[in-house]
Specification:
- This protein is α/β, with parallel strands linked by helices.
- It folds into three domains: 215 residues, no CATH class; 111 residues, no CATH class; 206 residues, no CATH class.
- It is built from nine helices and 37 strands.
- It has a 23-stranded mixed sheet that branches. Strands 6-8-12-11 form a four-stranded antiparallel sheet, with no helix packed on it.
- Strand 13 and strand 14 form a beta hairpin.
- The radius of gyration is 45 Å and the shape is elongated.
Length: 600
């Protein structure tokens, strides 16, 4: 047996060869078992068999018999919150490995050194007699010749200073067992003052597994940041126009409810106040400041105000509640309980308009907001700054002009000019000029498109396009149809002004001619300037559109025609390609591919 082996045997006790072999076998089995059990725990530190901690444990096993294998697991109590994040776990295990290796090597070295000093002291006094050797072996040597090391408590603290663990080395020789005072002293030397587990300190000295185990000893109190304030809406921020189709395939356009009515004093949204933060403390008893929550941005717009306690945004006037992208506002609503005719005259309103009757021929309705007509629109003009709903449809007699900066929903459209900046949805389109920058759908009810010219930036979808009598039904896909509408309207207005100007010039001189001629000349000049600007703009837009289509071919997929039946007489244009259908086609789907229109 080597000198070092002899020294360590004296330090931790001697056993017979048979007992030593048995203990070694037990230790090896325990090590294998413990390693197999711990390999699945990512928070456990895995030590090689030759590690100083394992050497100390093996010697302790020789003295005490079967004892648990070292367990170094950076976890908190069972069911506890996560002490160390998964991202930081490997770094913390590396720090723990360095610290435990350093302390174990130092302790092992110190134990051997003290034993060597004791043996050298005995050698100077003379040879050890058999009697003295027997006393040394039996543990009866004098206290000054018996090396000893007291139990030693090591403290490992997390980098975030929010947790600390205890690791205890057993005593050597006649050293003192661990006690509460030693644990308290170790914590004090490491400045651990907050969150100490006092119950652990009380029970640990009597715990049979107190040595070679990592115990969670102290935990800081994390700060609790305040929650930001927030807004609970009582009115929708976005427009949802869901068309409900009944079993007969009919749509009730009166159920669209474009107007979100509110009375004065109604709550538009509730304002939830932020909460204050709660300061925390780390294990060194240092305060960890907490952040207070931020106040919610109040979406206060026109005709709204905060309640006295600041907990709600309320309407100051009755009207239609609308969200403009940043704030809620209450827009005035004009409610007309009858027809728009000679009793009302033309209507021009800055808010929303709800007409419970018809719009009779020859009259004009203009609104900055949404327009809802419960009845029929005849040969009249309607312009909506938002959406337009015509519950019973439009019978235009080739004179109606219907325009909306939003979407248009109508039971049917007949002999009219219709322009929607967004989508258009109807049951039936007959002999109309339709312009839509979105998609056009005629799928509910009869779902037919017959005659006229239909322009859509994206998709046209219908049950039936054309008829057996084969009227020309032109479908044009792509571009910005609403710009085409504005351009054509401007051309038509210039033609009318030119005709009016010529007629005025032919009239004999009169005060009326003197008054009207300059006005018409000025309007004509302004509109001609607008027309030139439009032409320049449309050329640029067409070039940009072509460049975009070349770089992003997938956008061509938006331009398609889908219908159940397409009759001969339908003429389809996608981009610069035009093709006329010469035979009836069922379940028609047409797209542009490789410069050609394909009917699938």
């Amino acid at each position: 047996m080597s000198l070092a082996r002899t020294i360590l045997s004296r330090l931790f006790g001697t056993v017979s060869d048979e007992e030593e072999t048995e203990n070694q076998d037990l230790g090896a089995q325990a090590q294998v078992q413990e390693e197999e059990e711990s390999v699945f725990n990512p928070a456990s530190l895995q030590l090689p068999s030759e590690h100083p901690v394992n050497k100390l444990w093996a010697l302790w096993t020789e003295q005490k018999g079967r004892v648990p294998f070292p367990d170094l697991c950076l976890e908190g109590p069972s069911g506890h919150r996560e002490i160390i994040s998964r991202n930081e776990l490997q770094r913390e295990l590396g720090r723990l490995s360095k610290q435990i290796t350093s302390t174990a090597e130092a302790r092992l070295k110190e134990a051997v050194h003290k034993e060597q000093e004791a043996m050298e002291g005995q050698s100077k006094e003379g040879d050890v007699s058999k009697e003295n050797l027997s006393d040394l072996t039996d543990g009866n040597a004098e206290e000054k010749q018996a090396p000893r090391l007291h139990a030693q408590a090591e403290i490992f603290t997390a980098r975030n200073q929010m947790a600390a663990w205890l690791f205890i080395y057993p005593p050597v020789g006649e050293g003192r067992e661990i006690d509460r005072d030693m644990l308290v002293q170790a914590l004090k030397e490491n400045d651990i003052e907050f969150g100490v587990d006092e119950a652990l300190l009380d029970r640990l000295p009597e715990d049979p597994d107190r040595y070679f185990h990592l115990f969670f000893a102290a935990e800081g109190l994390p700060p609790v940041h305040g929650k930001d304030g927030y807004v609970i809406d009582r009115f929708p921020r976005s427009k949802k126009r869901e068309m409900t189709v009944n079993e007969a395939g009919q749509v009730d356009y009166s159920e669209l409810n474009l107007v979100n009515n509110a009375d004065q004093g109604d709550v538009i949204c509730q304002i939830v106040e932020p909460t204050e933060g709660i300061h925390g403390r780390n294990i060194f008893d240092k305060q960890l400041p907490a952040r207070d929550g931020k106040k919610a941005a109040v979406p206060k717009g026109r005709n709204t105000e905060l309640s006295e306690d600041g907990s709600a945004l309320i309407a100051t006037k009755p009207g239609h509640v609308e969200f403009d992208g940043r704030n809620f506002q209450v827009k005035p609503v004009m409610d007309i309980g009858k027809n728009v005719d000679y009793s009302t005259g033309n209507i021009n309103f800055l808010g929303d308009i709800h007409i419970h009757g018809d719009v009779c021929s020859g009259f004009t309705v203009r609104a900055m907001g949404n327009v809802t007509v419960d009845g029929v629109v005849e040969a009249s003009t309607i312009e909506a700054g938002g959406d337009l709903v015509v519950v019973k449809g439009v019978k235009g007699n080739n004179q109606a002009v219907i325009k909306a900066c939003g979407s248009i929903y109508a039971k049917y459209l007949e002999s009219s000019i219709v322009c929607a900046k967004e989508e258009l949805q109807t049951d039936c389109i007959i002999n109309c000029s339709v312009y839509s920058d979105g998609q056009i759908q005629a799928c509910s009810g009869r779902g037919i498109i017959i005659g006229g010219k239909i322009r859509a930036a994206g998709e046209v979808k219908a049950n039936i396009i054309g008829s057996k009598s084969e009227p020309l039904t032109s479908i044009i896909l792509g571009g910005q149809p609403s710009d085409d509408f504005e351009y054509e309207s401007l051309q038509k207005e210039i033609e009318e002004l030119e005709q009016e100007f010529e007629e005025l010039e032919k009239q004999p001189d009169s005060p009326a001619k003197t008054r009207n001629l300059p006005m018409v000349r000025m309007k004509l000049s302004v509109n001609r300037t607008k027309l030139k600007q439009y032409e320049t703009f449309m050329v640029q837009e067409k070039q940009e559109s072509q460049d975009q289509e070349e770089s992003q071919e997938q956008k061509l997929d938006d331009r398609r025609l889908i219908c159940g039946i397409a009759y001969p007489g339908m003429e389809l244009t996608i981009g610069d390609v035009t093709q006329r259908l010469n035979h009836e086609t069922q379940h028609c789907r047409a797209i542009l591919s490789d410069g050609e229109i394909h009917f699938l």
